[in-house]
Amino acid sequence: MTRLTILGGGHVGQTLVALLGGRFDISTTIWSRRWRHARVIHRRAFGREGTYGIGQARIQPSLRQAVDRADIIVIAVPGYGRAALLKRIAGRIDTCALLVAWEGLGAFPETLRDLGIVGPTIVGLQRSPICCRALPGDAVEILGVRTRVVAATVDSGDSSRAARLMKAIFPFKFALAPDYRCVSLSPGNPMIHPARLYSCGLAGADSIRPGVRFYQNWNDSASRVLIDLHREVAEVRDELRLPRAFVRTLVDASAPTAQAVTRDIRAARSLEGILLPVRTLRGRWQLDRRHRFFREDIDESLAYIRRIARSGGVAMPVAEAISAWSNAHQTPRA
Question: Which of 47, 88, 141, 177 can bridge 246 by disulfide, Cβ–Cβ 3.0-4.6 Å?
Fold first, then answer.
């Protein structure tokens, strides 16, 4: 029986429990600070097509015990918390067969190298295969499933082994890229979230208030920033001679209009409930600089994309402007 450990009890972690924790050939353990007293969790995953899976996992409150003797480990924690977690388990996962960063963005390869983690086959995903949310009680809702997700191994020589293991465990279709930089140059959240936040920041106080929907209130200003970011990533990809099949951008086939991009994003029904991250400080509403859209997508992922660009001698003026704006407008502690 395969011993699977999921690190993180958020939306992804709980959804994986529902999808994988009901299989007879997998013994599933989950670690999270979320549960203090329970020993087992049960989850049901459902969507428009009905029930996708019903599963359970043993809760292990000790991180070290959770990873001991695990065959497969899935890291499903925010990117900004990943380095500290890996530091705690370094030296304890040498016998693990497969280590998966559910979104392997940012400085994931460097963190592994610095900690000397080389034993497992290590895979990072360019995007999450599922859009999901945990609901009160024991249910998780699957809002969308990607038909194809780009992944890559940190060591390119592990690709064949990773493909076999991932096919045997996960109910998703992965395309293994030949270069890990294809994962790092994600055209997903590291482009979308910074574009929207930056455009709101430039628009001023009128656009920053509670109840604004992140995607359904998307506007052409955000679309123009997003298109510019995609254009910059496409330039980095082409300069580094990475295959287009694994880093697809909005500008590859044609010149998209801001109006068309806005229309497409607003039509994404699976993202309806997400709100603009705001907080009140001294009686004024501000973008919440502590939110994961800032910490994970600007500070971690977009910063690393800029690092790749600089190493290839490619300028990313829009990405640099977003970073400078974000650093200059850090939310002070109340």
Answer: 177
160: Cβ contacts below 8 Å, ≥ 6 apart: none
Question: Which residues have C-beta within 8 Å of that of residue 4, sequence separation ≥ 6?
Answer: 20, 26, 27, 28, 29, 70, 71, 72, 73, 74, 169
Tokens, residue 326: 């974000």
Ordered domains of the chain (ranges, CATH): 2-183 (3.40.50.720), 186-328 (1.10.1040.10)
pLDDT (0 to 100) of residue 171: 95
Q: Residue range 173-178: average pLDDT?
A: 97
Interval 11-17 mean pLDDT = 97
What is the reported pLDDT for 333?
40
Nearest Cα to Cα of residue 126 among 6, 42, 245: 245
Selection from 206, 198, 204 nearest residue 222 by Cα: 198
Helix axes 220-239, 189-203, angle to 10 degrees: 140
Look at residues 122, 84, 75 and name the one whose alpha carbon lies nearest to residue 103. Answer: 75
What lies within 8 Å, CB to CB, of 18 at 6+ separation is: 43, 44, 45, 52, 53, 54, 55, 140
Could you tell me the two tokens for 203?
A: 């628009």
- The length of the chain, given as a count of residues: 334
